[in-house]
Amino acid sequence: MMSLASNRREALAIGGATIFLAAAGGMLRAVDAAGQPLPEGDAYAPWRLWNDPSIGGTPLALVAAGVLAANPHDTQPWLFGVSANAIEIFADLSRNLGAMDTYVREMHLGLGCAIENMRLAAGPNGYSAEIEATPGLLTALAERRMPVHAATVRLIERGRTAPDSLYRAIPDRHTNRYAYDRDRALPEDWRHFASHADVGADVRVFLFEDGEPRRLFDAAVVEATEAIIADQTMVADSDRWFRASSAEIDAHRDGPTLEAAGLSSLTLMLARLFPVSAETSHKGWMDQTRDVQVASAPAVGLIAVRDRYDRVSAIAAGRVWQRLHLSATALGMAMQPLNQPIEMIDRERQAGLGAAWAARVARLTGDDWQATFSFRAGFASQTAPASPRRRLKDVLRV
Predict the structure, then answer these.
(1) In which domain, by residue range, is 249 found?
(2) Distance of alpha carbon 237 from its chain centroid, rounded?
């Protein structure tokens, strides 16, 4: 069989028939140049296999980078349709967070993160990539069962380019929930990058380190966490994604885990040994948010757009978050989403309870911008572990 490296278009057509018309019961398979299934490994194998030489120089290499992107609650809400000259990205609405993401806004942020990883992987695999997001409003997406088209990445073959620092950081980028060093200043290079993130003028990043804006931000995160815990529907929709055991991780290959929760060694050991009630878990989340995550961060911030419910803007904001996190990773920094205030904006709107949370967050951005993502940044006390990831075959769409 012709190698993938020698003729990508021909090889993809051959391999594509194998992938999309696969043998047993219509199941999908990711294959190498010889038509053999790629190694799947455990739930963390995609972090090791993301740039496997057997798919290098093909669109599958871009998908393998995409599935390692940041995404809400590790729901990995994406599906990919692959051809020789394009990758179609779909929002898998069945993987929604319910009341935690009632307008699937965070889902589209995660899609933007995946798209940015794919764009970064294009050059080193011999492509240029043009991104076209599907227009529309998130508030119009009432369906929660069927995938909907979110974007197209159009591919043009060219010579391979050298990997840049953001591309090289892809396998090392993990959400870090441990304590940060409040007294250690952030690098000026990263501050400058964060001011624009090289995506576009329709997304803006706000950074806060001290003073009244920082106090308002911290209070909003803490009080939004309290509000979510008090909302039985919201917290239940969050909890259902949690994977408490290795068996659950292997079965689902997604969701938050104990290992990635930022717990101390003793607390982690006890949590593994003894069942933890929902009340204890929620109290632990509250304490960790207030006393560790907010308290220790030298800087916090918001990513804002003109309309938080515009689909194109949500994807652009997700691309910015991925770039911020990758650039931080390349500099040895850590980052973590703290999206509770924005989740409360969505919940309040969906429940018809007014716009108090939106007005509260607008005090930090002004009326011309609407925050769609909030985060913290700094240097962490410990290295963050990887999160589970689904196989390529799980995310390829017929």
Answers:
(1) 175-378
(2) 18
In a domain, 3, yes or no: no
Residues 6+ apart with CB under 8 A from 297: 180, 182, 376, 377, 378
386 domain-assigned:
no
Same domain, 133 and 262: no
| 285 sits in which H/E element | helix 278-288
- What type of residue is 153? V
Instruction: Report CA 351 to chain centroid distance, whole Å.
Output: 26
Q: Domain check: are 167 and 211 in the same one?
A: no
**In sequence order, what E strands does 203-329 have?**
203-208, 299-305
**Cβ–Cβ < 8 Å for 114, 89:** yes
For the chain, the domain total comes to 2
Could you tell me if 204 and 306 lie in one domain?
yes
Average of per-residue pLDDT across 117-137: 98
- Which of 144, 171, 198 is a domain's end point? 171
Could you tell me if 173 and 114 are in contact, meaning their C-beta atoms sit under 8 angstroms apart? Answer: no
Task: Answer yes or no: do 189 and 110 share one domain.
Answer: no
Read off the pLDDT of each residue in 159-186 and give the average, rounded to a whole number.
Answer: 97
Report the distance separating Cα 128 and Cα 120, nearest Å: 9
- Is 337 contained in some domain? yes
**What pLDDT, in 10s, does the model give residues 17-55?**
344 323 223 334 455 445 556 556 799 999 999 999 999
Residues 217 and 131 in one domain: no
In this structure, the answer to whether residues 270 and 204 fall within a common structural domain is: yes
Place 272 in a pLDDT band, splitting at 50, 70 and 90.
Answer: confident
Same domain, 195 and 156: no
Q: Residue 295 belongs to what H/E stretch? A: helix 295-296
C-alpha span between 114 and 189 (Å, rounded): 24
One-letter amino acid of 102: T
Neighbouring C-alpha atoms within 13 Å toward the C-beta of 27: 11
Alpha carbon separation from 285 to 52, 235, 263, 372 (Å, rounded): 37, 11, 10, 22
293-344 pLDDT, tens digit per residue, is 999 999 999 999 999 999 999 999 999 999 999 999 999 999 999 999 999 9
What's the confidence (pLDDT) of residue 24? 29
